[in-house]
Specification:
Blueprint: H1 11-17, H2 31-42, E1 53-57, H3 61-70, H4 75-79, E2 82-89, H5 91-100, H6 108-132, E3 136-140, H7 147-153, E4 160-169, H8 183-186, H9 197-213, H10 224-231, H11 234-251
Antiparallel strand pairs: 1-2, 2-4, 3-4
Helix pairs in contact: 2-6
Length: 258
């Protein structure tokens, strides 16, 4: 496929300099560019060529407003010109197997694992395609708090899961690069090696200082530890986990009994 004229040839530079954009201009993104981004998503590796994903662009203003209200009026969503839900889609594959009359079985765990991998790889391709076209993006999962309601608004059948919402547009900001752990923390050779406490605290300290200097923390959080605790507070997460298990079973992505 021929690349658009605006595509950047320095792909490694784009990867290393990629940052999540949360404020966008209101400049429209053309349908042609969006189709190019979707095609890039489809070029990601996929299990047996099945492509366990679907993409849902939400352009209807009423539907966008309803979703934004459900997730408590998020400014990122309000700002983004383009919304694309990247979905784990097993419904189409099951229908294909039935149509071809072939003996194939996909259990709930298999559905979850294969579709999560396929959809995530496709989403990353779409992120980098957007970058190469001069666009910015951010991956959001705010809707997981209201998974059932969003699924109903999108008319999703059983065996389709809205994994993430990809927001795309022309950037109205250039945020600093957020810190990452040192390569030593994440690269293992021949066997897994859990970093010692001293190494972890040193890496944490460096990342935390960097984020403080960037004014990254909002609200009552003043450190990475406080930020994590606010996001994953035990009591709240136990309740959320219980709700998610119930909803994932209804959607066909977890066994009824585990």
């Amino acid at each position: 496929m021929a690349l658009p004229e605006k595509a950047s040839p320095s792909f490694l530079h784009l990867i290393l300099e990629r940052r999540s954009v949360r404020r966008f201009t209101q400049r429209a993104v053309s349908g042609k560019l969006l189709k190019t981004i979707v095609k890039a998503g489809q070029r990601a590796p996929t299990s047996c060529g099945i492509q366990f994903y679907s993409f849902i662009e939400v352009s209807d203003r009423r539907k966008r407003r309803l979703i934004n209200n459900l997730v408590s009026e998020n400014q990122v969503l309000e700002s983004a010109p383009v919304w694309v839900f990247v979905c784990c889609d097993v419904a189409r594959s099951l229908k294909m197997f039935e149509t071809l009359k072939i003996d194939c079985y996909l259990g709930e765990v298999t559905r979850l694992v294969h579709s999560l991998i396929d959809a995530s790889l496709a989403a990353q391709n779409m992120v980098m395609a957007a970058e190469s076209l001069g666009l910015g993006s951010v991956i959001t999962i705010y809707h997981w708090k209201v998974l059932r309601e969003v699924s109903e608004l999108l008319h999703l059948p059983r065996n389709v899961l809205p994994l993430l919402l990809l927001c795309i547009g022309y950037p109205a900001e250039k945020p600093p690069l957020r810190p990452r752990w040192s390569t030593y923390m994440v690269l293992h050779k021949n066997r897994y090696r859990l970093p010692d406490q001293k190494t972890m605290l040193r890496n944490y300290g460096e990342s935390n200082r960097s984020l403080v200097n960037m004014n990254y923390f909002k609200g009552d959080a003043t450190s990475l530890a406080e930020h994590w605790q606010r996001k994953f507070l035990t009591k709240e997460m136990i309740l959320r986990e219980k709700k998610l298990r119930t909803e994932l079973r209804k959607l066909g992505f977890l066994p009824k009994k585990m």
